[in-house]
Each structure stands twice: as structure tokens, then as C-alpha cells.
Specification:
The complex is a heterodimer of chains A (287) and B (265).
Chain A: E1 3-4, H1 8-34, E2 36-38, E3 44-46, H2 50-57, H3 59-88, H4 96-105, H5 112-123, H6 129-137, H7 148-176, H8 180-188, H9 193-221, H10 225-231, H11 242-252, H12 256-281, H13 283-286
Antiparallel strand pairs in A: 2-3
Chain B: H1 6-26, H2 30-35, H3 47-54, H4 56-89, E1 90-91, H5 95-104, H6 110-123, H7 130-154, H8 159-166, H9 171-182, H10 184-200, H11 203-207, H12 216-226, H13 231-251, H14 256-260
Helix pairs in contact in B: 1-13, 3-4, 3-13, 4-7, 4-10, 4-12, 7-10, 8-9, 12-13
The chains are: A mainly alpha (287), B mainly alpha (265).
Chain lengths: 287, 265
Amino acid sequence: MKTENQKAWFFVLPVLLLVAFNALIPMMTVVNYSVQETFGDNVFFWQGLDWFQQILRSDRFHAALGRQFLFTFLILIIEVPLGIAIALSMPRSGFWVPVCLVLMALPMLIPWNVVGAMWNIFTLPDIGLLGYFLNHVLGINYDMTQDPIAAWVTIVTMDVWHWTSLVVLLAYAGLVSIPDAYYQAAKIDGASNWAVFRFIQLPKMKTVLTIAILLRFMDSFNIYTEPFVLTGGGPGNSTTLLSIDLVKIALGQFDLGPAAAMSLIYFAITLLVSWLFYTLMTKDDLN
Amino acid sequence: MQKRSIVPIVYILFLMLPIYWLVAMSFKTTNEILSGFSLFPQSFTLENYTTIFTDPSWYWGYINSILYVTINTVISVAVALPAAYAFSRYRFLGDKQLFFWLLTNRMAPAAVFALPFFQLYSAVELFDTHLAVALAHCLFNIPLAVWILEGFMGGVPKELDETAFVDGYSFPRFFATIFVPSIKAGVGVAAFFCFMFSWVELLLAKTLTAVAAKPIAATMTKTASSAGYELGLLAAAGTLTIIPGAIVIWFVRNYIAKGFAMGRV
């Protein structure tokens, strides 16, 4: 049981100050921009909610949002089952376990723009390993600078390469926490592999899978650097995800008002969907 | 060797392929890269690495990155320790709301904050310093560190605290000499995650620096465009950015799985 102690506030004060400095001041700046118009020289005019209406009605925003949801949906539907399958087939103990885990975690420790650059080099049609193999060995016409489908396949594969290990490591942590007695009991009852998975392993992995899905949702929804370096949002706008579009508007066109309004809508959507995921996945625990 | 261990092996091979290609390219001359496809370096060269280790504008990128990542890790873990203790042991006014608010900062797209961060850190005259990047990365690293440490602290029985206080330990002495050592795996994991996310983040690091504190990852983008497209050099610089992560993860290898589960298994 936790004891009530208001002095605990002193313990959280440093955290509160540091995070508030980084979160509240920039957030207020964004809110400020989102309701004003500027023509430079630090002169601002009150604009009300016009930018919000403009963004919410714009086809460009709808298109970017649609691409963003498609991307996040694709990587979740591939990475989560794949990650669980790999975790299930890992040995539970032994010399190779830490080696496997270190190798699997390696892609996550590479700076994001290096990930993009690495995949760029890897997929160059004539001199990249994958690009050469697809074009000259399999005879598939593959060039992601020309073909939107190829660009999409590449950014999704890159994300699967980059982040599936997160799901593997989380699912694996859940699996090794299951006592052997559970498996022995299941064996005595003559439970099938599926039954063991459905009634023993899956429930034990629930907490960690919730964390995995939430983290993968948030991070894939906010993804910027890797696809930007790899495709630059192209060909055309076919891989312009929300963050890429936002940076284009804010720093490319310097339309601060619309960019700020878009930021707030973007953040609100991330929060809302995260909250929905969290509520749905922990619903049973509350009942 | 069981039949099903083929799955992790194939998966690890898939993970290693692009990394192999990057490393292989870093040992090729630019001429060889552009002249056609070769699976192994034909004319093996260390020239790309020599360039990086002798040119200050390259190797300072590494030093800058390591400096701000280290500062960030120290700050994040140091302030997260007492906060995580408070969340793990006490109820106080607004505790749940505060915890949730901290986590929401993990959800904010970095792209949203790029411009306001630039203005904020210019206003407090920290622009282009290591401290600026270290503080900015606290935005997402402190909530993560609090979350991880709180998970590990939850596994320490409260009796430990009570016994120590009965034995006459003062709080700071108990915290520093008994409690923190008892969760040192958690501290290691939290430090590892702070290192990892600060090391891989580029958008904010690039926005907040110009020359003096420019991270290696930003050096790569600039040089790639100004000196033509020197793939070999780019590959060598990329290969070198993998090494610090590989070293750090080796230290926490026995806690990786539990660590990624934020101590919550």
C-alpha cells in the first residue's frame, strides 16, 4: 500500500520543472502561432480559428493523414504478429539468448538518418544489394524513385527491419516470465499448442504487448527522419507522411500559422488514438 | 538445435543484410561503388575511415554527439530517480494526472517542437551548445526514465524502506546506499534507454545546433550534399555511428528483455 504524503511533490519537482520548460513553453508558442497571421518582421494579426478550419478542410491534410494511417496500420499488422512469432520460436535460456537479443536490438540503436541512408544505399537499383538482386537476379523492375508502390514497400520494409525487434523483445520478456509449472499443467491436460498460446502465453504477454502496440503506434505516427532521408516524401507526394508534410509547411514555406494549427490537430489525434488503444486493451482489467 | 530456431536465425540474417552492405561499402573506394555491383570490396581501402579520423569537422561530430548524449543521460536518470520513488511509494495530490501528463510528452511529434525549440533555446542563449540538445532531449527521456525506474522500484518490497528507517537511516543515506543499489539493473536499463533515444534522435539535435555542437548525423547530411555524393565516406561515417550503441547494449545484455518491458513483467 502506498502512503499519502504531499511532500512527495518535492521529489517530482525537478522532473516537473525540466519537462515543463521543454513542453509548456514550446506548446504555448505553437498555440500562439496557430491563432495568428504574420507577414514577417514580428508583426502578428489575430486570426481566430481560421487556420484550424482551413487545415481540417484541406485535401492536402486529408491525404497526408490518410497516408499516415495507412503506414501505421501496415507496420502494426506486420510487426506485431511477426514479433510474437519470432519471440515464440526463441529458446528460453542458454548461451545464444543474449547474443540473439543484442543482435536483434542493434537496428534500434542506429541514428534514424543513418537508417534512412543505409536503406538508400541498400536499395539503389544498380549498385545496392537489394536493388541489384531485385532488378538483375529476379528481373523485377524496382526503382523507388520512380514507382510509388516500390517506395511504399521500401519504407514499410525499412520500418519492419527497424522496429520489429521492439515487439520481439517485449513479447519475449513476457514469455520468459511464465513459470514452467504452467506448461507442465497444460501438458498433463493434453492442451494443444494453440491452446497453450491462447490461454497461457497470450494472457501473460498482455501487459507487454500493450506497451509494444502503444509505443509502435506513437513512434510510427510521429515518424519523420527515416522516410524523409530515404524517399524525401516522393515520388511526388506518395510517401509524404504527416510529419514530413508538417516540416514542409513550417520550415519550407514558413507558413507558421497553418503549420502550428496542423501541429495541434496532429498532436490531438496522436493523444486520442493512444488513449483509445490504451482503454480498449486494458478494458478487461478494469472490469 | 530445434527446428523452430530457424525463425530467429532467418530474422537475424534479414537484420544483418543492410548493416553488412553499409559496412562493405565503407571499405570500397567511391570509384568501385559507382562502377558497378560487387558483393565484397574488390580493392579494400581504409581511406574513408582515414578521412573521418583526420578531419576535425568529421570527428568533432562524434565528440559532440557523445557529449550531449552523456549529459542528457546523467540529467535524466538523476532527476528521474527521486521522482520514480515518489510515484512508486507515495500517494499525493495529482499524482496520476502528473504521471499521465509526463507520458504524453513521449507522444508529441518532434516535428511539432522543432521551430519553438529553436526560438526557446535562442532566447535563453543556449543555441548551439551541448547543454541545449541535452536539455531538449529531456522532453522524451525523463518521462521514459521515470516510467522504467518506477517499474523496477515496484518490484522492491516496501519492507526494505521501513526496516532501514527503523534502523535509524536518514532518507538520503537510505536512498543512496541501500535503495539505489538494490535497483541498479533498473538504473542501467534507464540509462541505456536515455542513451539510445538521445543517440538516435536527429531532428531536434540538428535544429538546436549550428557549428560548435553539431551532431555526427547532421555532419553526414551536410557533407553528402556539398562534396558530391561520396557514398563510401557516408557508409564509413554510418558504420561508426553503430559502434557506440553496440558497446552500450553489450553492458545491459542480461537485462535487455526485462528492460524493454520497462521492468513490468
